[in-house]
Amino acid sequence: MNQKTTLVFILFFSFCSFAFGDENDQNAKNTTLPAIANDIATQFHNMGWFSGSVLVIQEDKEIFVSSYGFQNIKEQIKNTGQTRFNLGSIMKDFTKVLVLQQIEKGKFRLNSQLISFDLGFKQSFTEDITIEQLLNHSAGFEDIFVAEYRENPLAFDTLDKKLSILIDRPLIFKPGTDNQYSNYGYIVLGKILEKVTGKPFEELLKNKIFLPTEMTDTTFEPSYSHDHQSVKYTYQYDSTLREVGVVEHPSPDGGIESTIRDVHRFYKALFYTDKLLQNSNPINRKVFAMDDPHWGAYGGGLGVSAAVEIDLARNYQIVVLANSDNLVAELISGRILSFIKNGEYAPVRQLEKNFAYEYYKTNGKKKFSKQFKLAYSDEGYERFIGRTINELGMELLRAESFTEAFDMFYYLVSLFPDAPQVYDSLAFAYLSKGDETTAKETFSQSLAIKADFESDYVSDNYGHDDSVVD
């Protein structure tokens, strides 16, 4: 960390805690809140990280609204309250609403079994999967991001194509016995909705959600001819933003292009009215935890970060949407919510991979290898260091900074020599550089550790699958 950054952290930490004589004095807090929300967002923006919009509402009154950065950097068009951003996995709340609407109509129940919809699943235990398990990520499906999908996400441009990815793969646990986040489960739900209603998912979104809630600035697909459509940017290891373009097609697990006020309209209708669902229905209240003090919804991906905090106890709604990534929206929304609840919030600090790259560039390869692990923990970072280094290495590969990328992957091997994943990443680095032979040899070390290990990046295990003799 350089001297300037350290000074910013020290100054920031000195005023990130506040006290109120009466914690129920919302008027006093609301007077301070705009300056606090703006300062939090500005801190992230000044790092080069946050580009987006923030909205804070309490009891239908806009306490704070502001935008930062650019809708389009190349054309120097600034973000505004009208800018449309991708919502990522916040889409799942829209899919939940569509599912619950069909339950209200009696088309199926929470305990209806997947097998009854005849989608083609034949694996062991899939007959036990229920709608509720698909909704709460306990159905046993792995996530969609297997090597086949990673290799070319844009090839999967229909629900049927996405459904085919895992339709024959074994479940990773028996339904209902564990919980693991799965985008794929929501793709299955989308296909069920289409089969039950006889209508395309996009049409259901428009007619059953967008129109009733007057979300006039929201669409399922991006519209790049729209005056307020944002361009997506990824926050790079060197603290710059790079345009990423279209990387995936929207589907029931992630997508939608919307504005901060339209997102607020959706959640206001969901939690405070009967426009979308019967608010008093115990099933609806259970699925959306309406009797809890808080509901959070978050979305992320390449060039995407979105966050919604519904403080049901105090009647606050916070919406943060960004056309930059690495979860920056929820880091901002979480701090604003913390201030509302407690009068204090965590200090802002640099993203883990950016801290790692700065340490590497400042101290050199040798010192990085010897001291970074300790420096990482001393700085207070708790995220798994292996994931941080792997992500940094992959970004360096995409930038064709091969020397730096290989330094990261060999460092990863030194940290976790018995983990097959690290040799998979190193093999992918060699493949990215064009050395297929060394890539295959390197992946052999993954298989030596775990014979049935499957690459996260290459669907044929770097040619090893072709070597298997029946």
Quick structural gist:
The chain has 470 residues and is an alpha+beta fold. It is built from 17 helices and eleven strands.
What does this structure look like?
The chain is α+β, with helices and mostly antiparallel strands and 470 residues long. Helices cover 44% and strands 11% of the residues. It has helices spanning 3-13, 26-46, 91-104, 131-135, 147-151, 159-164, 183-197, 201-210, 260-272, 282-287, 328-342, 352-378, 385-398, 402-415, 420-432, 436-449, 464-467; strands at residues 52-58, 61-68, 70-72, 77-78, 85-86, 233-235, 241-243, 257-258, 294-301, 304-311, 316-322. The strands form 4 sheets. Strands 2-1-11-10-9 form a 5-stranded antiparallel β-sheet, with helices on both faces. Strands 3-4 form a two-stranded antiparallel sheet. A two-stranded antiparallel ribbon has the order 5-8. Helix 3 packs across helix 8 (201-210) and helix 15 packs antiparallel against helix 16 (436-449). The N and C termini lie far apart (55 Å). The model is unreliable at 1-15 and 17-21 (pLDDT under 50).
